From TrEMBL:
The lineage of its organism: Eukaryota, Viridiplantae, Streptophyta, Embryophyta, Tracheophyta. Transmembrane segments: none annotated. One of its GO terms (molecular function) is enzyme inhibitor activity. Residues 6-81 form the Pectinesterase inhibitor domain. It comes from Solanum verrucosum. This is Pectinesterase inhibitor domain-containing protein. Pfam families: PMEI. InterPro entries: Invertase/methylesterase_inhib, Pectinesterase_inhib_dom. It comes from the Eukaryota. SUPFAM superfamilies: Plant invertase/pectin methylesterase inhibitor (SSF101148).
Length: 112
């Protein structure tokens, strides 16, 4: 999860903030601002997940991981609407989805 946090922060900086800095059209700017907020929240949720797992609060950790997935879907929806099939976002989304599925599986396997 630590490497996932770093990779998400890097994506936020190199892709979302870079595109936001040059976005002129209101729909693009709004979408990227939403994504910025979503990814910042995702980083916070991942940090919270780590904390919860370390403290043995697996139910809370599972809630945090679910929040990461839900938040990222919000960004994915607007990116698809504004940019269509954007390879950079698609690649990151596929990777992040895999991380979320794996983390959920690991957490729920401890719970059950």
């Amino acid at each position: 999860m630590v490497s996932s946090i770093a990779k998400t922060e890097e994506f936020l900086k190199t892709t979302i903030l870079t595109r936001l800095a040059i976005a002129i059209e209101a729909p693009k700017k709004s979408c990227l601002e939403t994504c910025k907020e979503v990814y910042e929240n995702a980083v916070d949720a991942m940090k919270s997940t780590l904390k919860e797992v370390n403290e043995g609060n697996y139910y809370e950790a599972n809630v945090d991981v679910s929040a990461v997935g839900s938040n990222m879907e919000t960004c994915k929806d607007c990116i698809n609407e504004i940019y269509g099939d954007d390879p950079e976002f698609t690649k990151f989304d596929n990777w992040s989805h895999g991380v979320i599925v794996d983390a959920s599986y690991r957490i729920t396997s401890v719970i059950n």
